[in-house]
């Protein structure tokens, strides 16, 4: 994995050179500029949305961790688009597509556990709270 991270800038450079060879210099530069601006716009939009969700959480409205993770994933996609090169742009495209992103996350993290929700007694509608201590120990 570390070798791949060390080789990534060189591989990105090779893909951009190949793009320039297949098309022309102007097209390659326009591609890098367009993906950079698109990444910046996505990052800006997701940053504003994330702060809005955090303000709503502080106001007492609860939101799920999935929503927060989706916001962070979109921010990651924006960062990946800002890095010049076609490999990180492909990775950003994978992150941008919601169902593919969730399937990839499940592959890496495994199945998600259900949140704990205590069962209530539907007959009495009362909850008993307190401390206890076993006397037979």
TrEMBL record:
GO terms for cellular component: membrane. The keyword Membrane applies. The keyword Transport does not apply. It holds the Pfam family FxsA. Keywords: Membrane, Transmembrane, Transmembrane helix. Residues 114-137 are annotated as: Disordered. Signal peptide: none annotated. The chain crosses the membrane at residues 26-43, 76-98. PANTHER family: UPF0716 PROTEIN FXSA. NCBIfam families: PRK11463.1-2. This is FxsA family protein. It comes from Parahaliea mediterranea. The lineage of its organism: Bacteria, Pseudomonadati, Pseudomonadota, Gammaproteobacteria, Cellvibrionales.
